[in-house]
Write a structure and sequence with these properties.
139 residues, mainly alpha, Non-ribosomal Peptide Synthetase Peptidyl Carrier Protein, Chain A, two-stranded antiparallel ribbon, 4 strands, 63% helix, elongated
């Protein structure tokens, strides 16, 4: 029973719940960025580069083997470098968005005030003058 209680305490801590929410939102954000790159950015880059579609860019290492009837016996082996370029662009967009969010959060944080300085004790002259004053007062 102690293990279950310990796990429950762990799972219900604020940090774990915040992390879970972050993962879910991050997954959804990843889909948005994927759509942004695939559906909006890459077509524009394709037009700029003369109709190049990076997602279809591959280097064929081994050509597909076909049967006599035209069906694929062994599929082609390819390096999909165009897809890799898309993923790099997605990463850069996500990294930039995270940077902007963190920068915004840091600017919203109140700067912690420096602790108030403890007043320094009286100087030697002040101590001496205080002693003289006390002596004169007592006479």
């Amino acid at each position: 029973m102690g293990f279950v209680k310990e796990f429950k305490d762990f799972a219900m801590r604020g940090n774990v719940i915040d992390l879970a929410v972050g993962v879910v939102i991050g997954g959804a954000f990843g889909k948005i960025v994927t759509s942004l790159v695939d559906d909006l950015i890459m077509p524009v880059i394709g037009v700029i580069t003369g109709g190049v579609d990076f997602s279809e860019k591959v280097i064929t290492l081994k050509v597909a083997e076909l049967n006599a009837d035209g069906s694929i016996l062994n599929p082609a082996v390819t390096l999909n470098y165009g897809n890799f370029i898309n993923v790099i662009i997605q990463f850069l967009i996500i990294a930039f968005c995270i940077f902007v969010v963190i920068k915004g959060l840091n600017s919203l944080k109140k700067k912690e005030e420096a602790p108030a300085e403890v007043p320094a004790g009286p100087s030697n002259e002040e101590v001496l003058l205080t002693e003289i004053r006390d002596l004169l007062k007592n006479k």
